[in-house]
Specification:
The protein has helices spanning 66-81, 84-96, 101-116, 141-154, 170-190, and strands spanning 2-4, 19-25, 34-42, 47-50, 59-61. The chain is an alpha+beta fold. The chain starts with a strand and ends in a 13-residue tail after the last helix.
Length: 203
Amino acid sequence: MLRFRRADVSYEDLPADGHFEILMFNSHDRTKRYQLSAGVYRMICSNGLIVASHMLSRTVLTHYHVRHSIAELVSEATALAARSGMVMDIVESMRDRVLTVGEQLDLARKAIDIRYRGIPTDLRPETLLNVRREEDAGDDLWHTFNRVQENMIVGGVHTGRRHTRPMVSLYETNALNTQLWVAAEKLLAVSGVPKTEALVTAE
């Protein structure tokens, strides 16, 4: 996975609580196609989130006819970058959306269902809401989403008998990111923000 951000913005000027990126997924042995996705990166916790929204179509290209594919890849990346404002508008809406305790727990349960695919686990939803750093505190959707995502992916969450392991598979992490974004957008819809038909990019 390669992460791209605007070259005309210095690292020091990037907002710590989330800035737009373009992510490119590829494989060394051609078992996976080129894939472009929009992303939001938080320097506060090194969280990389993958955006899954109907406004941002996923681009998938084969490795064959490489010259043609690269030209198309650059064209699609440029079009994706032009929609960065839409992504950050969604992030701002998430910051404004305050969740009830029940909604926070539902989002955590969704993450558990995605990660374990219905297999019983001792992991409790409330433990995924634990705050690792002061900057992540808050009942709004954006900070809740980031806490749940980080606690699930980084691991180290106590289950009563042991601690969870970090997620190391790129494509499993991709699946969690995109499907959790879908769940977050549905919570936005509940508050009156127009509902979007999210696109899951995991393979």
